[in-house]
Amino acid sequence: MRKNLGRIAGLLASTTALALIAPANVSAAQGQATETASTAASSDFDGIVVTARRRAEDISRVPTSITALGAEALEQRSIATQSDLQAAVPGLVVRETQSNNQLNYSIRGQTVDAFSGASTAVVPYLNEVPFVAGGVASFFDLESVQVLKGPQGTLFGRNATGGAVLSTTARPKEEFAGNLKAGYGNFNAINVEGMVNAPLVSDKVLFRGAFKLARRDGYIKNVYKGPVFDNNDNRRLGELDSNAFRVSLLVRPAEGIENLTMVQYERTRGNNSGTRIYSYNRCGETAPDGTPLPCNADFLFGPQLDANLGIPGAWEAVLAANPGYDPGGLRAVLERQNKELGFWEVNDAMPSYHRGKDLAITNTTTIDIAESARLKNIFGYSWSRAIDSTGQTGTPYLLISNFDINRPSTDPLRNFANDVTNRSVTEELQLQGEAFGNGLEYAVGGYFQDLRNHTIFPQSYFGLSPISAPASTTSNFKIKDRSTAVYAHGTFDLGVLAGLEGLKFTIGGRYAWEKISLDHQPGGTFYGLTTPDVKFDRPSWNVGLEYQANPELMLYIVARESWRSGGINGVAPPALSATLTNTDKFKSEVAQDFEGGFKYNGEIGTTRVHLYGSAYTMQVKNVQRTMFPVNPVDPSLGSIAITVNVPEARIKGLELEAGITPNEWLSLGLTAAHTDAKFTKNIAYAFGVPTTFGPVADVPSWSGSAYASVTVPLGDMGHLNLRGDLYTQSGFYFSNTANSLSPNTRLPGYTTANFRVDWEEIGGSTFGASLWVRNAFNEKYYVGGLAQGTSLGINSANVGRPRMYGAEVRVSF
């Protein structure tokens, strides 16, 4: 990491130098646009300013589906983590696979599965820089969060098939200011945040620093009574211990020039939330097409072991050697869980802990090179390391674990957890401007990313001592991924250019090249074998037409195509028999969509009304999905996770966002999304074996939210803001093979309610206080699952948060 930091320092110095040597006699007009480019209004639908097209625009004038939340809206909705976003954004699913520390975004059926070697379909950004999976994502002192839906590629960093989530940190301002807030809640939750803003040199050098400290006891009780493998009793799961710090420095060496540097570091501790057993395949059961279902778990764990192995007394011997094993087998474990245990209780023998470190550095230099043109350089560095151990089946058995129990304790690769390190360096140079009398707004540029990944993935299977020793394996590999792209995007105002008032035409194109290499490391299962590099290149494009019918109503239609590269499965054998499909590689995924919609933002009488609607249809080819086949080299080693390509999927849907302000003290709103996704060509091959895919996982057919916000004036005592939010969604599958090898993997729908009361300007002061509650009615619901029915014959699911509540006090100065 030290070597990388030296490289970073050099790049930062070069971009800062670019600002210092630029000509000083430039216009400041575009600098003002930069100042407001990343802001969003505080209310849910006041004239929100977004940067979906890399320039500051009112959200009601942007011809695409986008949701934006400003700093105050984030606070009013008590959005403090990525998971909280789901209730505020129609059509967004924030999925947990194994635990609360492993999250993936899903938009319009586009996502990345757990254990996938694929790049993400929905790219997260921090200050216009894509950050690596597991990278910094703390929601504190933010200026806005914007969620863009649909294929991306002609404007933002890395091409993607599903969308982008843009987080923008608060910029340094030109006045001295600060705030401090502290909160306490149930589960001994402690949250402390603070910010200070200081102009070091008036209008020239501005500084901002912020921090967030968060603590919380686990909200899931583990009732397991036997010994845990790392001697950690893990009686409470979902524990949180996080410290995050950020500093930002804005330098304006001359008129029309600015350089903004942001550095953020976060350290996390605690453990993972764990899973509950959800379903398992019983031996003898068949899939809908008549194929026998994999049933390793049912075959081995239970009284039936004696007959299955032909060894009388085998199960009794296993129970004697493994205190804590349930003598009744999987059937008894599932029945006890559903009848005796509370919803937020698990019975899991596996150790659980989480250790994470994240560093993000962004540096943006903007230079006005003419009255209507500016040069923008965006540099980014993102580094993360996460070490995680957690149960994967929700059972009191060593059925599968993410540690190698057979390695000697002196072996440096004896990791009792998954150990994943990611490092990304990005560089983007962009020219923005207007031409032809403001008849054309354009952006042209180039993008480069160097992404490095090191994965140590140990596993152990089938703890049946003394009958047999657990099988184990360790994957240890490094991946290098280099991506280069050039792009151009332009919006033509046909009113200016051709007299067609209110009509605009947009066209954009991008061409990207990507090269990926993988090296197996010492101690890994496939060390010594060579995996050839893979290369991918392909265009992305965007064509759209928008019509501003009047100042309040815009109509639009857009067509887009983008892609995410294929890759290499590091846990798959790099060399197989010629009679088998070589699935250590997978192809690029390509998405093409058509979207039409309208945006109305105006007044009906004296009532402010906001109504945005869109309809879309998307076709995706070579859909990247993870499956868990039995290891083809040695089936006794259990399952492996590989990415395969499902030939084709079709997704279509409707999205709606609305709000109304009847008067100054009342605001009402709702969102809704309908998504219809299915695999239209659904046979994929893993090691020569066909697998039927469907339905599409992680896609609820319906989801939506509603809110009401009331302001109550208290005269000299300040004012109260009262807010209630309701979120609902239909059920969804957490397996992409629910119709074949992983039945019984549909999670039920649910509805949750959140409430918050803010007392502002208490007694005319700068003090404030709040009371809040999330999941107020303690709804029991699931937020994702891990389907291993295709190999082990068992599936587990993750529970959502129980009722959480707290109080907060704050002061600003």
Report on this model:
The chain is mainly beta. It has a single domain (2-812), classed as TonB-dependent receptor, beta-barrel domain (Maltoporin, Chain A, Beta Barrel), CATH 2.40.170. It has a 22-stranded antiparallel beta barrel. The chain has a five-stranded mixed beta sheet with strand order 3-8-9-6-7. It is globular. The two termini are 38 Å apart. Residues 1-43 have low confidence and may be disordered.
Topology record:
Blueprint: H1 2-21, H2 29-36, E1 49-50, E2 57-58, E3 66-70, H3 71-76, E4 92-96, E5 103-107, E6 122-126, E7 129-130, E8 142-149, E9 163-169, E10 177-185, E11 189-201, E12 205-216, E13 220-222, E14 236-237, E15 240-254, E16 257-270, E17 276-280, H4 296-300, H5 305-309, H6 314-321, H7 329-339, E18 345-346, E19 353-370, E20 373-389, E21 400-401, E22 418-435, E23 440-461, E24 471-493, H8 494-498, E25 503-520, E26 531-550, E27 553-564, E28 567-568, E29 585-586, E30 589-604, E31 607-627, E32 642-663, E33 666-681, E34 683-686, E35 689-692, E36 702-713, E37 719-729, E38 732-733, E39 746-747, E40 750-760, E41 767-774, E42 782-788, E43 794-799, E44 804-812
Parallel strand pairs: 6-9, 13-18
Antiparallel strand pairs: 1-2, 3-8, 4-5, 6-7, 8-9, 10-11, 10-44, 11-12, 12-15, 13-14, 15-16, 16-19, 17-43, 19-20, 20-22, 21-23, 22-23, 23-24, 24-25, 25-26, 26-27, 27-30, 28-29, 30-31, 31-32, 32-33, 33-36, 34-35, 36-37, 37-40, 38-39, 40-41, 41-44, 42-43
